[in-house]
Amino acid sequence: MTDRLNIAIIAAAGSGTRMQADRAKQMIELGGKPLLLHTLKRFEKCDSVHEIVLVLQPDLTSEALAAISRHGLLKIKRVVAGGAERQDSIYRGLQVINANSAGIVVVHDAARPFVRPEEITTVIDRAESTGAALMALPAVDTIKQIKTARVQRTLDRSRIYHAQTPQAFRFSIIREAYERARVDGYSATDDSQLVERIGQRVSIVEGSPLNIKITRPFDLKIAELINTEYFNGAR
């Protein structure tokens, strides 16, 4: 695997309607620069990632490329127009990857700007040894399974994890998972679910509570605090 390229697909094509902002969520400023740039910089600084494929809303391409140029990011090799759903967008990103040179593919949500380069490396290393890995946080709350607003049962919290990204896979595995889902018309809420569906076991790397996904206005307030207190207001 050492002669192959590890490629990150950054999913930044969502509409961000829950943010209730007057501009695309990816371009909302955090600490003086667009949210997207924070995320891209984490992967730029990760030595285990060799190239980045950015999947983006087409109408954001000019603005995003200008910001990328200003900040001197060099690993972004392709910018791809996103699809109707996240799964469609990641599939489009996979389509531009050269199968002959690809090693590990790392999929990450642009709305998670606080993953650290060393955490990305840990997930990649685990995927290289096992085929598939993701960051996930153990549940701390008691989890209830419900139906029609009534509790059916209480789940064993010790076996419940909250999935995060990055999620990393050998290219052949993630490509097969996406192709099979496309043929079957199957949709999932994350990449790992598609990989699990083809019988591939996925390893867990314990995640970080700082690796939040910014979805709603309240999340942006938390992100501002994290950026100031844990990332020194990085610009």
Overall description:
It contains seven helices and eleven strands. It has 235 residues and is an alpha/beta fold. Helix 5 crosses helix 6. A seven-stranded mixed sheet has the order 5-4-1-6-10-7-11, sandwiched between helices. The chain has a single domain (5-229), classed as Alpha-Beta Complex (Spore Coat Polysaccharide Biosynthesis Protein SpsA, Chain A), CATH 3.90.550.10.
Write the layout of secondary structure elements.
Layout (H helix, E strand, L loop, with lengths): L4 E8 L16 E2 L2 E2 H10 L6 E6 L4 H10 L5 E6 L4 H10 L6 E8 L7 H14 L1 E7 L5 E4 L2 E5 L6 E10 H14 L6 H7 L5 E4 L10 H13 L6
Parallel strand pairs: 1-4, 1-6, 4-5, 7-11
Antiparallel strand pairs: 2-3, 6-10, 7-10, 8-9
Helix pairs in contact: 5-6
Low-confidence stretches: none
Order of helices and strands: EEEHEHEHEHEEEEHHEH
> Nearest-angstrom radius of gyration?
18 Å
Global shape:
globular
Query: Helix share of residues?
Result: 25-40%
**Percentage of residues in DSSP E strands:** 25-35%
Features:
235 residues, alpha/beta, Spore Coat Polysaccharide Biosynthesis Protein SpsA, Chain A, seven-stranded mixed beta sheet, two-stranded antiparallel ribbon, 7 helices, 11 strands
Outline:
With 235 residues, the chain is an alpha/beta fold. The chain is 33% helix and 26% strand. Strand 2 (29-30) and strand 3 (33-34) form a beta hairpin.
